[in-house]
């Protein structure tokens, strides 16, 4: 009898920006205690998982040459972690993963975490696993602090090392302009730089999270803009002083406010509406302060199966510098 080979499964997964990122103390395990508000953005990666005789990872798209295709790829680590979790033999995995990247590599937008989350959702579908979202979130947390949120999407409060997620009421679609930098920043280096700055002096700290949650409930982008804050920004700017110019240029171009996204170096500019975002993007792309500009919106859903390979794909509007 012929074995039926399951059809490949494709998953679309968003990127993220931290609307609020309060970094607390360095813990004994090397992580910092966080209070953060994540918002998922319409800049996406797509990940296809398929049964194949030549297992491995292939990467195409934005920054693909900087992404490992061996066991260090977070998507492959997700394959192995899920296999172990459900008792499959890790040495005999007949899985091929194709990643189409739209999210900049080492950009502070959780691109690798997104691919890991997408792989978990894709494989659960490909292998027809009876596995709930909470159980999958537990597997996700073993892969990285940002991975559970990339499964979840939307707007959420993250605590612990960022892996503990609860949804947040958010009433509005927010319009953003992203400024991609040339080259990335390594997340551990940025946290290390913050520790160094704090040992030496008193870099600015964000306020409490409650006003941010209230602004999200009200749905007013102007209110939210006043409250965007990221403790890692001082560290990212210390490592990349040019980001100061980028942040200034976005606001000068008409954004309500700008912030370094996560550990950087991508900068995210909140705009009043979709038309303003297009205007800001056009002006910023001519200012010579970044590699490329993208217009995106959020929140959007987390990692979701988008069906067969023949389904049409929608790309976010793009403006190239
Ligand atoms: C900057 C953020 O993107 C904000 O959401 C995240 O905190 C980073 O999350 P991530 O890339 O999933 O990070 P992980 O892979 O879990 O950790 C990478 C490294 O970042 C540092 N790290 C990360 C999370 C955290 N709460 N404290 C940390 O100090 C640690 O040096 C850790 O070894
Ligand atoms: N699937 C993947 N996509 C991108 N980078 C990956 C992937 N797998 C492993 N990496 C490696 O992980 C590192 C960080 O990549 P990533 O794009 O996730 O950074 P980031 O977006 O700054 O992360 P975060 O916002 O979660 O801190 C890079 O050195 C990259 O080579």
From TrEMBL:
Enzyme class: transferase
SUPFAM superfamilies named in the record: GHMP Kinase, C-terminal domain, Ribosomal protein S5 domain 2-like
Record field: catalytic activity: 4-CDP-2-C-methyl-D-erythritol + ATP = 4-CDP-2-C-methyl-D-erythritol 2-phosphate + ADP + H(+)
Enzyme Commission number(s) of this protein: 2.7.1.148
NCBIfam families (UniProt xref): ispE, PRK03188.1
Function: Catalyzes the phosphorylation of the position 2 hydroxy group of 4-diphosphocytidyl-2C-methyl-D-erythritol.
Protein name as it appears in the record: 4-diphosphocytidyl-2-C-methyl-D-erythritol kinase
The organism of origin for this protein: Actinophytocola algeriensis
Phylogenetic classification of the source organism: Bacteria, Bacillati, Actinomycetota, Actinomycetes, Pseudonocardiales
């Amino acid at each position: 009898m012929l074995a039926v080979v399951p059809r490949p499964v494709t998953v679309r997964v968003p990127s993220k920006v931290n609307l609020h990122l309060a970094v607390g103390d360095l813990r004994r395990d090397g992580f910092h205690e966080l209070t953060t508000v994540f918002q998922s953005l319409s800049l996406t990666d797509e990940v296809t998982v398929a049964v194949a005789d030549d297992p491995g990872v292939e990467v195409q798209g934005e920054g693909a040459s900087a992404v490992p295709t061996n066991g260090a790829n977070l998507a492959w680590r997700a394959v192995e972690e899920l296999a172990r979790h459900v008792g499959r033999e890790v040495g005999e995995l007949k899985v091929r993963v194709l990643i189409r990247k739209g999210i900049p590599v080492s950009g502070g937008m959780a691109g690798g975490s997104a691919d890991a989350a997408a792989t978990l959702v894709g494989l659960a579908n490909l292998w027809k696993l009876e596995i709930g979202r909470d159980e999958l979130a537990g597997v996700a947390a073993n892969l990285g602090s940002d991975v559970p949120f990339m499964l979840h999407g939307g707007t959420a409060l993250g605590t612990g090392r960022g892996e503990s997620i609860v949804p947040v009421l958010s009433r509005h679609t927010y319009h953003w302009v992203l400024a991609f930098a040339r080259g990335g920043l390594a997340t551990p280096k940025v946290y290390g730089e913050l520790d160094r700055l704090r040992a030496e002096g008193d870099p600015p700290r964000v306020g409490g999270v409650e006003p941010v949650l209230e602004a999200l409930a009200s749905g007013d982008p102007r209110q939210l803009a006043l409250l965007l804050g990221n403790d890692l920004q001082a560290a990212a700017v210390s490592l990349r002083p040019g980001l100061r110019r980028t942040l200034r240029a976005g606001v000068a171009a008409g954004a309500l406010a700008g912030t370094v996204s996560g550990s950087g170096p991508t900068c995210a500019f909140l705009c009043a509406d979709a038309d303003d975002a297009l205007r800001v993007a056009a002006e910023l792309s001519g200012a010579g302060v970044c590699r490329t500009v993208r217009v995106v919106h959020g929140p959007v859903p987390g990692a979701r199966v988008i069906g067969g390979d023949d389904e049409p794909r929608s790309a976010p509007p793009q403006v190239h510098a």
